[in-house]
Write a structure and sequence with these properties.
This protein is an alpha+beta fold. 30% of the residues lie in helices and 26% in strands. The chain has 6 helices and 11 strands.
Amino acid sequence: MHTIWKGSISFGLVNIPIKLHTATEDKDIKLRTLHKQCHSPIKYEKVCPVCDVEVKPEEIVKAFEYTKGKFVVLEDEDLEKLKKENEERAVEIVDFVKMEQIDPIYFDRTYFMSPSEGGVKAYSLLRKALEDTSKVGLAKIIIRLKEQMAVIRVYENTLVMETIHYPDEVRKASDVPNIPTESNVSEKELETAKLLIDQLTTDFEPKKYNDEYRTALMELIEAKQSGQETVTASQKDTPSNVTDLMAALQASIDRTKPKANSGEKKKRVLTKMKKEA
């Protein structure tokens, strides 16, 4: 499993060298966009709207737009310095809390944590302590130039770190439009709804669920491929700089060859001059 980050966890005086591994993967089927006429993949180019030219990667800089049309340019050297300074920090557990106190709306991405060399015993200690206390650790970590809060918990005997949003990154539910303030439902309707919920209540078994749309889309793609319903991208015609050698030689000969009637024409001119004399 690929390591995306190396560092350490610290709580109190305990320090655990660890590695982070992405715990989830995007299995969406990626579809390309083609030109309907020739089935060539569409290119998305970075173009400057003022200069009307394609911009090369080395000509692009990062900037913060502090007001419409006005920017603060950030140099790569400045960003790289910040990155190096912050990457040296450890994952610091600042609090321990009950998992049920954290609303799922805060959760972002999940990472597996494995112990680095020399960290096995401390890793096992933290895992056992979290299990026995039924607590999770709240920590701070910097990943890809962003400081994030994270929850450290146990999942199938493995320490897992889940990044969570800061409170100011979660929009206010009160801003959602058209939410009814009172429930205008009858007691009978409510009892019927509760009965339906009771009938559909079961234990959560993740393997029962699958992405039906993705499965159907893949079956459609495979059926079309088996039926030879495929297209091939057209190749762009490129002008050749190679000249036909034989054609060039023949053209040169034709251009320098004396004309067949040049002698007769010269004779007629001399005869005419004699008569006039």
